[in-house]
Amino acid sequence: MAQLKERTQGRPDFHNTPTVDMVGADERAARFRTRSIKKQSKVAGLKLALNMIDLTTLEGSDSPGKVRQLCHKAKHPHDSLAGLPTVAAVCVYPSFARIAKRELEGSGVKVACVATAFPSGHSDEALKINEVKYAVAEGADEVDMVINRGRFHAGDYNYVFDEVAAVKEACGHARLKVILETGELVTYDKVRRASEIAMHAGADFIKTSTGKISPAATMPVTLVMLEAIRDFYYDTGKMIGMKPAGGISTAKQSLHYLVMLREVLGQAWMNNTWFRFGASRLANDILLQLSKEATGNYYSLDYISKD
């Protein structure tokens, strides 16, 4: 509690966060899609992107069997291709964390859980904190929380800050990813402000979206968040991770994001400790592209497990 009190007493004035040049952000993000990548670098980039994916299942129809299948794919993305890495994590509801933890033991793949009344964020704070503690007790290595967008739009930035800080404390050893749900924030200025709030409150990662609404991750929004991370690092010396989630489904898109990551934040962020993709469909397209590079043949999705 002392740590939480110290953090909340040191809140910046979030009404004075930097504004964003919308035209400049859009134009710079578009330029990242024009980079030429040679074959050797392309294969290395695709393997890196695969290793940055959080395979995710967050449906009402989720079952223990489905979670076990997803964990198997996380460890063995495509056994017929040699030299493939695992993915970074498997993301599930807290009630499946214990199953995922057991299935992934010894693999290096993390267990991530959504919490805090995902995806709306509307619930009593005590219930949110209890859900976070339950997820960690069940085996979560990482917690993906959602901010209360209603309170954010009402201008109650201190409430959003305090809630993130309380969740961070409840995470204990687990890393905290804070989902901004940028599609509901609408403007780049609000995305920048929400990013600042989350980072100052103790987020280990900032994340674009739940994947439940559209638009989800876009390159300009991700650029705004990466620049917020860069400036926060310059000010504090603390590295913060980034996770674009939702809407990234092709191998080509993942390479564009990696180019942007390298040019904005640098080589230190080019690993799954500091960057993730929340895009399960992306894994399949990367596997198809790597198969094509290895064999010269382009297979259909019938050769790849859909989970």
CATH architecture verdict: Alpha-Beta Barrel
Q: What's the name of the CATH homologous superfamily?
A: Aldolase class I
Please give the domain count.
1
Mean pLDDT: 93
Q: What share of the residues does DSSP label as strand, in percent?
A: 5-15%
CATH topology label: TIM Barrel
Q: Gap between N and C termini, in Å?
A: 41 Å
Largest sheet: 7 strands, parallel
Give a description of the structure.
There is one protein chain. Strand 6 (205-207), helix 11 and strand 7 (241-243) form a beta-alpha-beta unit. The protein is globular. It has 307 residues and is an alpha/beta fold. Strands 1-2-3-4-5-6-7 form a seven-stranded parallel β-sheet. The protein has helices spanning 2-9, 22-31, 39-51, 64-75, 97-104, 125-137, 149-153, 157-171, 182-185, 188-201, 219-236, 251-264, 280-295, and strands at residues 54-56, 89-92, 110-114, 142-146, 175-179, 205-207, 241-243. The chain has a single domain (2-8, 17-303), classed as Aldolase class I (TIM Barrel). Helix 3 packs across helix 12 (251-264).
Keywords:
about 300 residues; alpha/beta; TIM Barrel; seven-stranded parallel β-sheet; 13 helices; about 50% helix; about 10% strand; globular
Give the structure's gist in a few sentences.
With 307 residues, this protein is of the alpha/beta class. It contains 13 helices and 7 strands. It has helices at residues 2-9, 22-31, 39-51, 64-75, 97-104, 125-137, 149-153, 157-171, 182-185, 188-201, 219-236, 251-264, 280-295, and strands spanning 54-56, 89-92, 110-114, 142-146, 175-179, 205-207, 241-243.
